[in-house]
From TrEMBL:
Pfam families: S1. Transmembrane segments: none annotated. This is S1 RNA-binding domain-containing protein. Residues 117-144 have a biased composition (Basic and acidic residues). InterPro entries: NA-bd_OB-fold (IPR012340), Ribos_protein_bS1-like (IPR050437), S1_domain (IPR003029). PANTHER family: 30S RIBOSOMAL PROTEIN S1, S1 RNA-BINDING DOMAIN-CONTAINING PROTEIN 1. Residues 6-87 form the S1 motif domain. Residues 92-144 are annotated as: Disordered. Residues 107-116 have a biased composition (Polar residues).
Length: 144
């Protein structure tokens, strides 16, 4: 897999966790992690019952079965781990995003379909607002 670094692939979210999403590549049938800090310039709340990550500010949703275009970021053969980043972000932007310098990524198929579905139906429990970038909140110890 090391020869696939920086290549882009289509994938499907196979698992959602509090620390990110695991994406299974359609073409190669392998899984890797898109860390929560690589999902966009937002604070994401994990809803274990619905298996979703929801952005506090943008309300962007990452859920099981969503299709994402990802780029292979790193491969650790000893640890048997593969890290991905969203393909619609510039290369190496994960660090830039912590400083608020990247554009907003888009997940495919994030809107519910069917009769009566609307943004009003998808209210999440309110949580206190946290101010500052992720980097600032990490320094303060304000990240759960």
């Amino acid at each position: 897999m090391q020869d696939h670094i920086d290549r882009e692939y289509e994938g499907i979210i196979a698992s959602v966790t509090s620390f990110g999403v695991f994406v299974r590549l359609k073409e190669l049938h392998i899984e890797g992690l898109v860390h929560i800090t690589g999902l966009g310039n937002d604070y994401f709340n994990y809803d274990q019952g619905r298996h979703v990550l929801v952005g506090e500010r943008t309300r962007q949703v990452f859920k099981l079965g969503d299709e994402l275009d990802v780029r292979v970021r790193s491969v650790d053969l000893d640890g048997r781990q593969i890290d991905f980043e969203l393909a619609d972000l510039p290369r190496g932007s994960s660090r830039d995003r912590l400083a608020g310098k990247s554009r907003k990524p888009q997940a495919k198929n994030t809107r519910p379909t069917g009769k009566g579905s609307s943004d009003k139906d998808r209210k999440e429990p309110s949580k206190p607002r946290r101010s500052g970038s992720i980097r600032e909140r990490l320094k303060r110890g304000d990240v759960p």
